[in-house]
Design goal:
alpha/beta; OB fold (Dihydrolipoamide Acetyltransferase, E2P); Rossmann fold; five-stranded parallel sheet; 12 helices
Amino acid sequence: MANGPATFENPWPVAELGHKLRDYIERLGTVWIEGEITQWGVSGRNVFGKLKDLDADATVSFTIWQSVRQKIPADLKQGDHVVALVKVNYWVKGGTLTMQVLQMKHVGLGDLLERLERLRAQLASEGLFELERKKKLPFLPGCIGLVTGKDSDAEKDVLRNAQLRWPAVQFRIEYSAVQGDRTVSEVVAAIEKLDADPDVDVIIVARGGGDFQNLLGFSDERVVRAAAACTTPIVSAIGHEADRPILDDVADLRASTPTDAAKRVVPDVAEQQLLIQQSRARLAGRMTTLVTHEMSRLEQLRSRPALASHTWIIDQRAEDLTRYVARGAELIDRFIEREQNRTAELAASVRALSPQRTLDRGYAIAQKADGSVVRGVADAPDGTELSVTLADGALTALSQGARER
């Protein structure tokens, strides 16, 4: 063994470094760690695998010897969320670091549920589950975005049922892992890509159900927030009834299965054609009823006396006009006769009061040369030339003055 610090002049042998690393690591003892099994391989009766951090990009290898494997749960597998008691070993000869598993068990469902409920409560407090923010699905989407596993039953169910209901429907499919450590990143990337596509009218995230722990990726905060940030309506079709992932709560529509999602998103062409036929039949019936009613009203109007004969109004008005003319002529004759009588009476009165009548009775009118009437003897002194008007003419006279009666 070398003594003192390693220097250029006094380097350590490789074995020295290996032993020091081994001694340092052995002082760490045993520790409990938590993660997700991303690799689980059996060689002989031993297990060699990898454990990935739940949040960070960090992975360690582990080994489970046969003696320990008999004491741990037999249903452990890739994708499981576990806690493990490990002892870190450094193999000097091979220069490798290994984690020897002494105990391993599933993380209790109670712990997982508690974490999910805390996240659910946080997202609910932010309003991500409110009905007001959920977008309405288009009646007939021209293009549907689909996030699912490649060649999965969920993909086949969605495509088959959608095309059966509306053969012309188009799809943009983005494949992603639907369980395991790649689920979150790939699902988020697929959602964001389809949301950015202007031709996609609605997005379906589909998985055909599964074990509760295998669905944890769809309750991951990153997936949920990516769905909440979507401007395109999103449908969650994870197909798990008992323990629904948080994606179901934030999605604009939750479908119980991929098949249900296809039926909820795409209308049935046969049903729509039937609805159109029924609507046309109802419209035709109402139009027929309206036209029949109006025809009946028209017939009633035409049967009225006022419209039965088109000459009645002329005949009636002609009779009225004849009556009015006769009445007018009678009234005019009476008026003329009455006025003639009145005129005769007035003429008689005028004649009776006329100076001519007075003259006819032998009286005369004396006027001076200036035309003034002589009313007394004083008006015509001796020598006054007078004009005397008689009944049949006028005489010129010379006044000789007044005389006694």
